[in-house]
Amino acid sequence: MTVVFFPEGAFGPTNNCVGIGKVLLERGERVVFVVEESFAGTLEAQGFEEATMRLKPPPEVEEAPGQFWKDFVRDTAPEFRKPTIDQLETFILPVWQELVDGARYVDERLAEIFDELEPDVIVQDNVVGFPAVLASGRPWVRIVSCNPLELKDPALPPVFSGYASGDQTGWEAFRARYRDLHEPLQREFSAFCEERGAPALAELEFVHESPYLDLYLYPAELDYERSEPLAPVWRRLESCVRSAEEAWEPPRGDGALIYVSLGSLGSADVELMNRLVAALAETPHRYVVSEGPQHELIELAPNMTGAEFLPQPAILPNADLVITHGGNNTVTESIHFGVPMIVLPLFWDQYDNAQRLTERGLGVRLPTYEFEDEELHAAIDGLLAGKAPGVQGASSRLQANPGTVRAAGLIQELAHA
């Protein structure tokens, strides 16, 4: 059986797919990753085949994996200081525009890849649709590795808002602003999908629901109570953690071990990273810091170790606490290993994850650019003292039923149906 994974060009979705792909490899299946040229070789090094593509014309100089989005976040970081309703115009809409442009640019190349590989199943983990997936006529799976507010429900807060579940203040204003800004682009993209042999998109959606199988990553302890149930083709994986590929030893010393990761994109905000490092330097704990693409500009304190890239699945089982941007991958992996979180959200669904962790008592949301040092220190002390008791129970349940294994089984069932 040939399974083709097509994740978004970021480490979170790619790593989720790697975890599932590894299980399929162990079961003797052929696994191919469709990746941007900047990622070429990274999946091959993990035992997978690769098929490369581009989402825009090639640059004049060699680029690092996911370099476009790192540059994009660096240049738009000032927008993250705005309320989420203001980010709709200055950040969310430009991101959707870039994603739609990429889908247009790559569609012919994707059709070529699918014709060459003749996959039994295509597994897509993207927030935007790619008509070539549907036009291929092959069974396909949609993975949602974002906060499930992406699967909209009138009784739940609007996605990207970070608004509280129990207070509907501002919900309709946010939804109306989102519609006014995004409806023209969405209709244009839906027409393109039809031109390329795919169905029209549902109202205000940028990605199709698969009629075969849809998966989303979110633990039951965090998930939302919906007023409109999802279709029967939907399955909740809860977590999808890849195995650690390398050994890792915690730094020596006293104090709790705290892992700091604002993601490969969030860590590109050097000013924020250095501000955070300075605040944490005043505490008695040990820190492991994921420094990201601007690592040479980040000065760590004596109680810290770090690197541009770190083996997150190897670190989390040793961590007492995580300080994170609230990306869905880090959130689900942290709960999988029973680690509470302090969340400093920056963009996209990170606000929703930060709010939900706070509501469910598994973490603390802080204002990313306005937090006081004392506020951060108090959150650290509280969580280390056991103020997120539910996280250990969630961890035991998730580790007993790995999402990677469940997903691999569902994909194999679909291929052989």
What does this structure look like?
Helix content is 40%, strand content 14%. The protein has 417 residues and is of the alpha/beta class. The strands form 2 sheets. Strands 3-2-1-4-5-6-7 form a 7-stranded parallel beta sheet, sandwiched between helices. The mean pLDDT is 91.
Return Rg in Å.
21 Å
Mean pLDDT: 91
Counting copies of identical and different chains, the oligomeric state is single chain
String of helices and strands: EHEEHHEHEHEEEHHEEHEHEHEHHH
Q: Provide the low-confidence segments as ranges.
A: none
Name the shape in a single word.
Answer: globular
Distance between the termini: 12 Å
Helical stretch tally: 13
β-strand percent reads 5-15%
Keywords:
417 residues, six-stranded parallel beta sheet, alpha/beta, single chain, 13 helices
Give the helices and strands, then pairings:
Layout: E1 2-7, H1 11-26, E2 30-36, E3 49-53, H2 67-76, H3 84-117, E4 121-125, H4 131-135, E5 140-144, H5 171-195, E6 213-216, E7 234-236, E8 257-261, H6 263-266, H7 270-280, E9 286-290, E10 304-307, H8 312-315, E11 321-324, H9 328-336, E12 341-343, H10 350-359, E13 363-365, H11 373-384, H12 390-400, H13 403-416
Parallel strand pairs: 1-2, 1-4, 2-3, 4-5, 5-6, 6-7, 8-9, 8-11, 9-10, 11-12, 12-13
Helix pairs in contact: 1-13, 3-5
